[in-house]
Amino acid sequence: MKTTLEINRSKKIKPSRYGLKYFVKTFGCQMNEHDSERIAGLFEQDGMSKASSIDDSDILFINTCTIRENADDKLYGTLGQLKIWKNANSKRKLLVGGCAAQKDKELVRNRAPWVDVVMGTHNLTDVVHLLNQSEDWGPITEVTEGIKTLPTDAPSIRESEVSALVTIQIGCDNSCTFCIVPSVRGPEISRRPSDILNEVSNLVDSGIKEITLLGQNVNSYGRDLKINGKSKPYFSELLHILNDVKDLKRIRFTSPHPKDFKDNTLISVNELDKVTNQIHIPLQSGSNTVLRKMQRGYSKKKFLEKVDLAKNTINDVSLTTDVIVGFPGETDEDFEETLSVLRYSKFDAVYMFKFSPRPGTKASDYKDEFIDKSIIDDRFMKLKELQTEISHQRYKRFIGTNQMLLVENYSKKSNNYLTGKIDGGQTTHISSNNIKIGDYVKVLITEATPFALKSELV
Ligand code: SF4
Questions:
Q1: Whose CA is nearest to atom 8 of ligand 1?
Q2: Is residue 377 part of a domain?
């Protein structure tokens, strides 16, 4: 696939690995995906090219996650298999970064001593330097506790030539009991608006049409910046600044926190033509008891008020959410509260997760209240059935309407079809006749399933 290479020319790293091939294997969230793009950029700046697979690679970077995957088991299983990969060629180098490396550096080192570099989430820009050091001195572990600076000057190799992830903030000031982010990514730090604007302008110059602003809690963006002597969230202002970037077509953002949604953000989303009418508003649970135990900072009532506010403020808003099923102590009644929020809110899509304890989080200590796996599976199925029905109803509302489609890729099933997203974020397919990747075109929606739309060119 064609990639976009941004090189910060002021960063003088001497290319030294021409001819070698790298592979970056990513687990977890969009934040990790974007970190992997930066790792790839730094490797290419050092002269390497992308390998087609792990087996084809000389330098392998594993970007680990502790949030979404059954991370620990998966990671150590993967590292065990990679011992064989590494032993097959003495020149091969194995690097492990990301949240699991940040949290459990000693464990990674002890369980997989064949790893050349164990590095933390805040050491991303040092990856080539650490690789050099490991070649000179042997296995190295470098995990900085606390944040140095945002890695804003790292180059990136982006997987898409159409849309790009742009980090606006790292870390999180909240303390949800199921989440490891605050301890591995540190407190919230926001990038300067001028720095973000610069990156977005460069991306647009290189052909990018859509950006997704990334942060753990984007709507509190800027709280740590003092602009004109004032400290307050500047997310709405940032949207206004980016909306003025010429030739940029679309702005998305994820993830906001329900408690930090302000009227002015929602008003801006509605007013600004490039900011899409899609809002992700992570529920996690509809039960006040569970929400308190999760330390989410809102009640069911407050959450529903935000849903109403979004629906009343943004024209034809598409809402999506996250739900964790089977949080410790969740009763049938608690679960029913979650279902009632879904029935009321009518989300376009729900990202569902079965609770599994993450070592190092408070919730992993609630062992006495862990829910039986069969009960979690049963609740998960009920949630899925309900939401599939709701999603289908929601998606059907587009049939017969005209929408703007940004074409991103070929369909996985057939090269006769291209696929992309309409403004609301719904995956939409279209025949590849007379259309190419990167087109931003008006389409007529002709069919809807619970998960995707079909369209034709207007
Ligand atoms: S808001 Fe909660 S779930 Fe999100 S990153 Fe922060 S601690 Fe984790």
A1: 179
A2: yes
**In 10 A of CB 409, how many CB atoms?**
14
Within-domain flag for 153:
no
Residue 451: domain span: 402-457
Cα-to-centroid distance, 249 and ligand 1 (Å)? 29
Give residues (CB < 6 A) around ligand 1: 172, 174, 176, 179, 181-182, 216-217, 257
Q: What is the DSSP string of 285-335?
A: -S-HHHHHHHT-S--HHHHHHHHHHHHHHSTT-EEEEEEEES-TT--HHHH
212 and 309, same structural domain? no
Is residue 183 included in any domain, yes or no?
yes
- Please tell me the residue having the least CA distance from ligand 1 atom 5: 216
403 with 422: CB under 8 angstroms? Answer: yes
Regarding whether 233 and 357 lie in a shared domain, the answer is no
**Secondary structure letter of residue 410 according to DSSP:** E
Angle, helices 332-345/373-396, rounded to nearest 10 degrees: 10
| Cis peptide leading into residue 36 (ω within 30°) | no
Minimum-distance ligand 1 atom for the alpha carbon of 296: 2
Predicted confidence (pLDDT) per residue in 334-349, tens digit: 999 999 999 999 999 9
Whether residue 155 lies inside any domain: the answer is no
Atom of ligand 1 nearest to the CA of 180: 8
Residue 182 CA, closest ligand 1 atom number: 7
Ligand 1 centroid to Cα of residue 253, in Å, is 16
Can you read off the two tokens belonging to residue 236? 């709405």
- Does 385 share its domain with 410? no
Q: For 241-284, what is each residue's pLDDT tens digit? A: 999 999 999 999 998 999 988 889 999 999 999 999 999 999 99
pTM score of the predicted model: 0.79
